[in-house]
Amino acid sequence: MIRIDAMWLATEPIDMRAGADRLLLRVVQVFGAAQAHHGYLFANRSVTRIKLLVHDGFGVWCAARRLNAGRFVWPSAAAETTSLTLTPAQFDALILGLPWQRLAELSCITRA
User: Fold this and answer.
1) Do β-strands 60-66 and 49-55 pair in parallel, antiparallel, or remain unpaired?
2) Rounded to whole angstroms, how far apart are CA atoms 112 and 103?
3) Alpha helix locations (H) across 18-87?
4) For site-directed labelling of 42, which of 4, 18, 87, 106 has its Cα 20 to 30 A away?
5) What is the longest distance spanned by two Cα atoms in the chain?
6) Is the pTM of this model over 0.85?
7) By C-alpha distance, which of 32, 51, 54 is closest to 41?
8) pLDDT digit of tens for each residue in the chain (112 aa)?
């Protein structure tokens, strides 16, 4: 498997026709550089498709995921930041279409 030490999420939408080279250019524009063993997530405007670009230390890998129903939970591009970091648990929830920002509060069931 490809090792990913850090996962970054770009908040601004990108055209899903973009291939690995154009995504790599966007990574350098948004994040400053493509770090080895880091993953970079992008979504389209309707947030029904995401692409992951991973720099493995030798080259880049590009993967895509699409939801047939619903949308991925994605921060708005109007947010103050253009990128966010994700934990492995947040990434797992995001690619399933779950509310990854609420993992901390959903991990504990309490009585109201």
Assistant:
1) antiparallel
2) 18
3) 20-31
4) 106
5) 52
6) no
7) 51
8) 688 999 999 888 999 999 999 999 999 988 889 999 999 999 999 999 999 999 998 999 999 999 888 898 888 766 556 668 888 888 888 888 888 877 666 666 667 6
